[in-house]
UniProtKB/TrEMBL annotation:
<dbReference type="GO" id="GO:0046872">
    <property type="term" value="F:metal ion binding"/>
</dbReference>
<dbReference type="InterPro" id="IPR006035">
    <property type="entry name" value="Ureohydrolase"/>
</dbReference>
<dbReference type="Pfam" id="PF00491">
    <property type="entry name" value="Arginase"/>
</dbReference>
<dbReference type="GO" id="GO:0008783">
    <property type="term" value="F:agmatinase activity"/>
</dbReference>
<protein>
    <submittedName>
        <fullName>Formiminoglutamase</fullName>
    </submittedName>
</protein>
<keyword id="KW-0378">Hydrolase</keyword>
<dbReference type="InterPro" id="IPR023696">
    <property type="entry name" value="Ureohydrolase_dom_sf"/>
</dbReference>
<dbReference type="GO" id="GO:0033389">
    <property type="term" value="P:putrescine biosynthetic process from arginine, via agmatine"/>
</dbReference>
<keyword id="KW-0479">Metal-binding</keyword>
<comment type="similarity">
    <text>Belongs to the arginase family.</text>
</comment>
Amino acid sequence: MNLAIFFDPLTEELVSSASASTTLASYVTPFLDTFPDWRAADLALIGLDEWRGSAAGPPAQHGADAVRTCLYQLQKGSGPCRLVDLGNLRPGLTLEDTYQRLREIIAALLEHNTVPLLLGGSHDLDYGQFLAYETLERPISFAAIDARVDMAEPDSATPEDSHLRRMLLHEPSFLFNFAQLAHQQYLVAPDVLTALEKLHFETLRVGQVRDDIRQAEPLLRQADFVSVDITALRWNDAPGYYPANPFGLTNEEAAKLAWYAGCNDQLSSFGLYGYRPDYDTHGLAAMVLATMLWYFVEGYYHRRRETDFRGPSFIRYAAGLHGPPDYSPLDESAEEGPDRIVFYKSQQTDRWWMEVVNLAGNVKRIVPCSYQDYLHAAQGDLPHRWILTQALLG
């Protein structure tokens, strides 16, 4: 597939402003005169400047380019860096055309195991990101980081305010799980959160993230893709949107979540949406988003490909649902049984997974979890994440 026809090249100034040979600018392969070989890359940056889904209209400046200027001046991380910059996507004749372009481009990248990094445009562009996963022909999970939950009725709202509803109701359905993170409850109608609860989806308010950000890690680890709206960050830390919101994630918390997403072995695309440089007088928000991308890339190169749960790098534990607490590892010869939940702990990263078998006993899924989930089960309590996954498995 010739992806070059969908993109405008970058200017030399965007990637040459960083003079030091140790910066990312010296390692990225940008689309200047020649379209880069994205098939050989690990990650591909895509700039977006599509705003027809937003009531506010387009900003005067190109947000992705403003973030690039900051990103390429950052020092390269400790790992390798096979990163290409495909330039800026040319919007379609209609907004729906842009969604379909994103679908085709992202699907092509996924086929070659190249992770798209989507930057700019209104948040509804993650609908095109979502559509690309239909080509995988398997159930997928995704996570949204947003101050609001964009589930308004499409007939009475802009695509930016209703794109999540459209994804959740998409037919044919290929969605297994969804997680909403960092929303602010006073900005979300109660019936919206009730609807997510009835669908057995997990939510984590911004206050819960702040109390213990480690709670967000299993939710991001289960996602095939992550979609971030800059409005999830408090305005003082990232003044790149309107109307201003004094509450939300700090820049440190946002960078940590980007790191978690990058470390996720199965996550295959990452989107940062909603940045409006017109409000970013001093370029602070551009630097925050650039740093989030840096942490995602660094996390990507710290992936451990932890998939062999029966291998020597994992310790198995079985938490009994009846009887006294038991914190001992599960002997390989022991029967697992219907009255126990099996957990897996990585000896490399200390991350935890939990085995969930449906009530009929014919479907099993191993899902990310936390150490707290294991402690609850060891005390004889069913973890909430186990209950939700059980409901999703039917």
